Amino acid sequence: MPREFAYRPLSGSSLDSPSATPADDKEEEYVECKHCTTRNRTRKNHWIAHAVSLVAIISLSILLIRSYDGAIIAARCWDMHNYYSPVNEALSTQPYITVRFNGSLWYESPFKGPPTPAVEEAWHSIMQYGMIAVSASDYEKVNHSTRTAVQFPEEAGGGYMVTTVGTHQLHCLHFLWQDHHRTYFPDVLRKVQDVPELYERHFEHCVDYIRQSIMCNFDTGLVTYDWVLEHQNPTPNSNAMHKCVNWDVAQEWLRDRAVEIPDGFKWKQPEGQESLPWNP
Q: Helix 165-180 and helix 196-216: axis angle, to 10°?
């Protein structure tokens, strides 16, 4: 005779409640499933947000690394082709600017004569930040000793007196231009008369200084030749393309370090100052 087993429902099951119906079970399952779907959707959105953030962080990091590497490469490239100067810091990361020179004989340049106050002002505007102040370390990095160096007076801000080679080149070119128009300039005529040997040395110095500068920074751009009108000789076309430093950036750097000597100040070699035994 088969054994009889007494089955008792587990506590808390639906069998404990006589009022429970299959419909109630389905409703509870639906509600639970609905909450589950909401939780899954929230988790999915959460991981999507994390993934997007991670991609953004990685992309930004790559851009920063490339930018940093690009700046290092640009600085190294600049240093490879230029001797040390504190100006390099401002220019080394600046892209060169493409410029077409205007080499026409008929170009009305603001720097061309005959001399007028406007032309002279144009020349002085590109040389106005002549004397600038630098630190002792900058002075020594250009292979010069501070033992014989000229310092600006404290009332002018101190620092060691220098000028950029580019500014000196422009000064020399302006000197040659003034000599060509010497009859317009009483000061030039006075120097020619009062110190003719020194004036001649200054003139030859400027010619040779510009010569050295042109050879050092030899421009490999091409001047082409064209047939023009009915001319029987080839005519040079000097309107060539060039890669130029950012002039405005360079001038801003110089302007920030330009020194104005107080009115009435007179230079005098300090007592006990060591000096060079020759004229450089």
A: 130
**Phi and psi at residue 97, to the nearest 5°:** -105, 135
* Dist. CA 100–CA 110, nearest whole Å: 17
The DSSP line for 220-280 is: ----EEE--TT-SS-EEE---EEEE--HHHHHHHHHHHB--PPTT----PPTT----SS--
Phi and psi at residue 224, to the nearest 5°: -90, 170
The tally of CA atoms less than 13 A away on the side-chain side of residue 79 is 9
Question: Taking a C-beta distance cutoff of 8 angstroms, is the pair 223, 236 a contact?
Answer: yes
pLDDT at residue 145 in the model: 94
CA distance from start to end of the chain: 131
Q: Residue holding tokens 């920030």?
A: 256
Q: Find, among 215, 217, 218, 188, the residue nearest to 203 by Cα.
A: 188
Long-range contacts of the stretch 272-279 (C-beta < 8 A, 24+): 273/148, 274/147, 274/148, 275/148, 276/148
Q: For position 105, what pLDDT does the model report?
A: 92
- pLDDT for 30 equals 54
pTM greater than 0.70 (yes/no): yes
b/e sequence 180-191, b meaning 16+ C-beta within 10 Å: eeeeeeeebeeb
* 10-33: pLDDT as tens digits: 554 444 444 445 555 555 555 556
Q: List the beta bridge partners of residue 134.
A: 160
**Number of residues assigned to the chain:** 280
| Cβ atoms 86, 134 nearer than 8 A | yes
Q: At what angle do helices 117-125 and 165-180 cross, to 10 degrees?
A: 160
Residues 6+ apart with CB under 8 A from 97: 243, 244, 245, 246, 247
Query: Which pair of tokens denotes residue 148?
Result: 């014989």
